[in-house]
Amino acid sequence: MTGALPTAASLYERVRRVIPPVEWPAFTNDIEAILALKRDRNAVILAHNYQTPEIFHCVADIVGDSLALARKAATVEAQVIVVAGVHFMAETAKLLNPNKMVLIPDLGAGCSLADSITAEDVRLLRQRYPGVPVVTYVNTSAAVKAESDICCTSGNARAVVESLGVPRVIMVPDEYLAINVAADTDVEIIAWRGHCEVHERFTSADIRELRDAHPGVIILAHPECPPEIVAQAEFSGSTAAMLDYVEREKPVRVVLLTECSMSDNVAVAHPEIEFIRPCNLCPHMKRITLANIRAALEENRHEVRIAAGIAGRARRSVERMLSL
Ligand code: 13P
Ligand code: SF4
């Protein structure tokens, strides 16, 4: 990377609607150091939509939902990739870039969905339902992906399920995503009992309170939410689909039933829209900070490695999804 680095003042312009001036000085040293490290090390930062605004808007090179991050990871030219997201996203980036250094700033950035299923669970499901293909949400370990026929994200789950041309599929591990997809397709779906600890907490009482307190509010729900929440929302889609909805429909008042930083990141570009913010924090996404991104680039920590016996088969499941 060449050229002058943006100044702290110009970066603050991007986030001043969501970061108070009194908080900004705490970020500037790390931001300046990270921008210089990226240039010097030929590195890029991939950031998920749930990253905090100072990461998302000030140091990230590529941002998006899980699908966009996987697609764009496949085309990265830099030698070092830092994933500002959770561990399975870093593994996906490594699968698609086996010869590059992929770093995750905090090894504890996990995911309750990824923790809900093992490779052995998938093998047992195959024994129980012989011949039924396994569609695996990207929110899983590489070992689980390796046992699968194809991956999906919340942005393409229905298309992936229907692409297989079969009457019945196994879909793991998110039970709610599976039920929400099943409501939209004729394909029978056998689900697993995994849940996202962030989205499972939204309730019908939350929706009633929102509609009472904010007349006319448009409710967008992530498909990891329980089916009764999705049924009551005006729209359901991946984090990227929520952003598209907001930009297309320009609702006067909106609530995004998902992780908290999502609204902040969208609100930055839409001062004309009122974002109501009951939201839930993802403790795993929040483990990523400017300080540990900087340390990742300074000290190469923590490098993601995937055993050769797993990587090839897991890559095939991800690439099959990306080829759709
Ligand atoms: P998407 O960004 O793909 O909608 O996924 C949400 C999520 O929970 C990722 O961990
Ligand atoms: Fe996992 Fe839910 Fe956090 Fe996404 S929001 S990383 S699905 S726990």
From TrEMBL:
Main localization, broad class: cytoplasm
EC number: 2.5.1.72
UniProt-listed InterPro entries: NadA, NadA_sf, Quinolinate_synth_type2
Catalytic activity: iminosuccinate + dihydroxyacetone phosphate = quinolinate + phosphate + 2 H2O + H(+)
GO MF terms, alphabetically ordered: 4 iron, 4 sulfur cluster binding; metal ion binding; quinolinate synthetase A activity
Binding site for iminosuccinate: 48, 66, 137-139, 154, 222-224, 239
Source domain of life: Bacteria
Uppermost EC category: transferase
Binding-site residues, [4Fe-4S] cluster: 111, 196, 282
Annotated Gene Ontology cellular component terms: cytosol
Cofactor requirement: [4Fe-4S] cluster
GO biological process terms, semicolon-separated: 'de novo' NAD+ biosynthetic process from L-aspartate
Cofactor annotation comment: Binds 1 [4Fe-4S] cluster per subunit.
Entry-linked Gene3D superfamilies: NadA-like
Involved pathway(s): Cofactor biosynthesis; NAD(+) biosynthesis; quinolinate from iminoaspartate: step 1/1
Alphabetically ordered keywords of this record: 4Fe-4S, Cytoplasm, Iron, Iron-sulfur, Metal-binding, Pyridine nucleotide biosynthesis, Transferase
Cellular compartments annotated: Cytoplasm
Family annotation (NCBIfam families): nadA, PRK09375.1-2, PRK09375.1-4
Role noted for this protein: Catalyzes the condensation of iminoaspartate with dihydroxyacetone phosphate to form quinolinate.
Protein family per UniProt: Belongs to the quinolinate synthase family. Type 2 subfamily.
Protein name listed in UniProt: Quinolinate synthase
Organism in which the protein naturally occurs: Mesorhizobium australicum (strain HAMBI 3006 / LMG 24608 / WSM2073)
